[in-house]
Amino acid sequence: TDDDVFYVTSPDAQRAYYASAKGKDNKGGVDLYMITMKKQPAAALTIMTGTFSLGDSTGTVPEDATITVTDNKTGEVIGVYKPNSETGKYLFILPPGKDYNVSYEAEGYLFESDNLMIPESTVYAEVEKPVELAPIKAGEKIILNNIFFEFDSDEITANSRVELAKL
Q1: Other CB atoms within 10 Å distance of the CB of residue 133
Q2: What is the DSSP letter of 42?
Q3: What is the pLDDT of residues 101-125, one digit of tens each?
Q4: Banded pLDDT at 135 (limits 50, 70, 90)
Q5: Stated pTM of the model
Q6: Residue 98's closest CA among 77, 112, 119?
Q7: What SS3 state is found at 63?
Q8: Integer Rg of the chain from CA
Q9: What pairing do the DSSP bridges indicate for beta strands 15-20 and 66-71?
Q10: How many CB atoms lie within 10 A of CB 161?
């Protein structure tokens, strides 16, 4: 109420922040305050963060740059995210207990992807992943890192289907 604004908790639920223009120790104008939560269990989530850039020395991030998160088990797209168009920075949250494929793409560039298993027991984690996409050039080789087969079989796993669909 009054002049207390922008109350927000941190992703790990350990702190909260707000701005206030009142109080006996006010320095004039709006001051920022941090609250430390008492014995709050850490939130069950994983934060993916990093910088998306292009390997063509332009230093730009194309408007069509996307980060797609897919559930490897079901093939369902969990979310599609865009990096900041000026800085290339990105951030998104993944709940625990799933096996994810995270794919980084931009038109005219080779995609990059990672498989990320987040166990159910994960309480709070931060994963930093810088991404630099190489331009598509005729005659270039592509290395696929996430193609797996069932044990003693020529059948590919469900995780690999997402990777092959991207290709």
Answers
A1: 21
A2: P
A3: 899 999 888 888 888 888 888 778 8
A4: confident
A5: 0.65
A6: 119
A7: coil
A8: 21
A9: unpaired
A10: 15
The torsion defined by the Cα of 125, 132, 87 and 67, in degrees rounded to 10, comes to: -60
At residue 138's C-alpha, the angle toward residues 163 and 108, to 5°, is: 60
Residue in the block written with tokens 């004039």: 28
Distance CA 167, CA 153 (A): 22
Residue 153's Cβ-count burial label (10 Å; 0-12, 13-18, 19+) is exposed
- pLDDT at 136 > cutoff 90: no
For residue 100, give the nearest of 123, 82, 124, 127 by alpha carbon: 127
pLDDT tier at 79, thresholds 50, 70, 90: very high
Tell me if residue 161 falls in helix, strand or coil.
helix
Q: Copy the structure tokens of residue 75.
A: 């093939």
Name residue 131's beta-bridge partners: 52
Structure tokens at 64: 């069509």
